[in-house]
Amino acid sequence: TWKWVVGPMFLYLCERLVRFWRSQQKVVITKVVIHPFKTIELQMMKKGFKMEVGQYIFVKCPAVSKLEWHPFTLTSAPEEDYFSIHVRIVGDWTEGLFNACGCDKQEFQEAWKLPKIAVDGPFGTASEDVFSYETVMLVGAGIGVTPFASVLKSVWYKYCHDATNLKLKKIYFYWLCRDTHAFEWFADLLQSLEAQMQERNNADFLSYNIYLTGWDETQATHFVVHHEEEKDVITGLKQKTLYGRPNWENEFKTIAERHPGSRIGVFLCGPEGLADTLNKQSISNSDADPRGVHFIFNKENF
Predict the structure, then answer these.
(1) Which fold has domain 128-299?
(2) Residue ranges of the FAD-binding FR-type domain (predicted)?
């Protein structure tokens, strides 16, 4: 038995030593942004830190807990001179981080008073392959929309810098959530991208659909009254919010007709049930002919 135990234990100890070494590297919090619905954005810098789109890191704040590490998806793009995470305050540890950063105080917080942060990572995910396709479908459910903030930012930077050499030509983005207000920071990002693309006369580069899966009778009445307004009453975007869940069979068939003979990347960050549905649709809507359309499914589950 000891022969089978020693090997894994040695690898585990090596991993712990690497994490301890990484935790001693200096991380500087350059900016703390408070978003609505008790969500904070931490912008940080670390010497030698290199990331790709959609990756995640483990974060430890000794002022809150000396032992706890928590995973957070990076919401910044590799082209930016900092890396960032968005933290929603939903438990004891996140509440402690919120208070340690001085977000519970009204006055301005001095930089030297911000807590020390230890970072382990970044670690890879399926979203890194998004630039390997000409056409992609990005599907985020609830908090699963977080990695696509990094993807969309990076796509825009690459598009502005050198659009001719960018292999990715078309993005279909789907965001499913019960309440968009909890992710207003992401809606702000979409508004910015929408405005910039209209300025460059390339609004067709990104097609996005926001599906609200939970609402009450009062909200429904409000939607009907303001339906004719130019911008959506919930997100402030020109693209109107849809209610319910998407008909995935129709969505896949429509995209297949628009891009015959293409390899289309399908990227999901969401629950296992949705992953099964998208995987089945990717298989059933791919042609047997190698020259036909093929949907390549990639997933992250939470």
Answers:
(1) Rossmann fold (3.40.50)
(2) 19-129
- Give me the mean pLDDT over the 269-284 stretch: 88
Residues spanned by CATH 2.40.30.10 within the chain?
Answer: 24-122
Q: Which CATH architecture has domain 24-122?
A: Beta Barrel (2.40)
Partnered with residue 123 across adjacent β-strands are: 56
d(CA 267, CA 129): 9
Q: Are strands 170-177 and 135-141 parallel, antiparallel or unpaired?
A: parallel
Instruction: Encode pLDDT of 213-231 as tens digits.
Output: 766 555 555 455 444 555 5
Give CATH 3.40.50.80 domain extents, the chain: 128-299
Instruction: Supply φ then ψ for residue 100, to 5 degrees.
Output: -65, -30
Query: Structure tokens of 230?
Result: 């130019």
| Beta sheet of 294-301, edge-to-edge order | 242-243, 206-212, 170-177, 135-141, 263-270, 294-301
Per-residue pLDDT at 274: 87
Decide the pairing of beta strands 135-141 and 263-270.
Answer: parallel
Question: What are the pLDDT digits (tens) for 227-243?
Answer: 455 555 455 555 666 77
Q: Are 31 and 102 in contact (CB under 8 A)?
A: no
The reported pTM is 0.79
